Amino acid sequence: MDLSAEVYACCEIPWAATTIEGNYYSVQVNTHFGDEHVAAIVAMTTMSPGTGFGEGINPRAFEGTVMLFGDEKPEWTDRSEFSTPDAQLPRTSVSLTFTLPDWSQLYLPDKDGKPVANDSVFEEFYDCILFAINQALFSAVEDGPIFVGPISHGDIIGDGLVRLNPAISNEPFYVRLPASSPLGSYSSQREGYPALSADPGLEFSYYELGSSVAVRRLFSWMRRSVLRAHRREWAEAIVAQQAALEDWMHYLVCGIAADHGFTSAEFASAGFEEKNAAETFGILSSHLGGNPTVASNAQKTVWRNRNSVVHRGDRATEALFKETYNAALSLQDWSKERLLIPEIAGRHPMTSWILHHEDAPLSLQVKTAVAELLEQDDLVSLPVVNDRRLLTGFPPRNIRRPSDCWGKGAKVPRPFG
User: Fold this and answer.
1) Which spans in 270-317 are helix H?
2) What Å distances lie between residue 317 and 29, 142, 201, 272, CA to CA?
C-alpha cells in the first residue's frame, strides 16, 4: 500500500528574503519528517522589499513634533531621511513542494471511528515545512548577500495553507499551516539583515559540527540568535543564545557517550536527556580535563543572563547580549582547544571529530573508522548512540567514569552517569 502524499505549501514571511534585482529564488533542500529524510523544492518571491520601512523619520512624526507648534525647521532634519507614510513592511511569498513518505499517522480514529488530527504528528509535519524554508533561506545566504533568517510559526504572516494529495486516493485536501503570535519585541517589524554579515561584528557562534546532517535543532537556535541580534531584539537573542549553547553542550556529551560505548538503552537509562545545563557542562568538563574554571564561569554567565531577562524581567540590552555571546564563544573555544590535544582526542575520538572533522588529531585508522560509521545509511545523526561499535583503536567499551579516562584517584568535578 502506497501511503505517500504529494505536499504543496505556501505562506508569507515578514522580511525580504531576496533582493529587488533578483526577487525570485528557488532551491532544492533536505528536510525531515520524524526520522525520515525528505527532499523539497522551495521557491521564494519578494512581494515587498520594505524600502523606506523602519528607516528615517516618519513625516507624520515630524508634523506632530515640529510643524504643529510652528517651530523653525531644525538643521538636523536636513541630514535625516524621511520615510514615506505608505511604506510597506518587507514580506516574501514562499512555496514548497515535496513527497511525504507516510501521511497515515496525521489522523487517528476516535472512539467512534472518526478521524481526528494527531497533534504530535502534525507538529512534525509543520516542522518539516518550516525547516525546509529555513534551509532554503540559509542556502540563499551562501549564494549572495541577501536578507534571511530562521523560520518558526511566529514568523508567518497569517496562516499558511498546505495541499496534501495522498497517492492512494488521488483526492487532495487542504490544512492550515498555523501562524502564532510573535514573541516580545519580535513585532518590531525591522527589516532583516544579512545573517552572515561581519559588519556588526556578529558571526555564527559555533564551529561546523563535522559532517553530520541532522543538527537542525542546534543550528536553528544558533541562526535564530544571530537574526534576533541583527534586528536588535536583545531578549530573544539572549534566550536563543543560551538554548543554542545548551544544545551544543548536549551534542558533545552525546559524542562522549558514544566514545565510551554507551548503547541507546544505556544512554536513555542514564537520563542524559534530563540533564540540566550545569550537569551537562559537568560531564563535558570531567572528560575534557584541564582547568575548566573559565569555561564554567562562562556557562554560568550565559545561564544567568538568560534567567535575568526571562524570570526577573530585567531589561535586555546590547551589552548584556554581547556578554552572553562572548561567554558562549569562550566555552566553545575551551572545548575546541581541549579536543585538539592528542591525548584527549584519543580518549574521545568521536567528540573530537564532531568539532574538528579532518583536523582532529586522530590516527588515520581511527579517522577512517569514524567516517565509515557516520556514512552508514541507518544513522540519522551522531547523537543517536550506536549499538554497533566494533571500531579498532577506540577506548574499551562502557567506560563510564572520567576517572577511567584520567587514571585512578583523579579529582574530577562530576562522574559520568
Assistant:
1) 277-288, 293-310
2) 36, 30, 16, 33
Find the range with the poorest average confidence among 61-65, 123-127, 142-146. 142-146
* Cβ-proximal residues to 27 (8 Å cutoff; 6+ apart), any chain: 41, 42, 136, 139, 140
> Structural domain boundaries of the chain?
5-53+88-188, 216-406
The answer to whether 231 touches 202, Cβ cutoff 8 Å, is no
Res. 324 pLDDT band, cuts 50 70 90: very high
Contact of 352 with 362, CB cutoff 8 Å: yes
**To 5 degrees, how large is the angle CA 15–CA 18–CA 23?**
120
Check: CB of residue 15 under 8 Å from CB of residue 191.
yes
Confidence of residue 231 (pLDDT cuts 50, 70, 90): low
C-alpha grid cell for residue 365? 585508522
Quickly tell me which residue has 580535563 as its cell.
Answer: 289
**Locate cell 535564530: which residue?**
224
Closest by CA to 247, choosing from 270, 269, 265, 224, is 224
Decide: 290 and 380 in contact? Cβ < 8 Å: no
The answer to whether 128 and 32 have CB atoms below 8 angstroms apart is: yes
Q: pLDDT for 405-415, tens place per residue?
A: 655 554 443 43
pLDDT digits (tens, 9 = 90+) for 163-179: 999 999 999 999 999 88
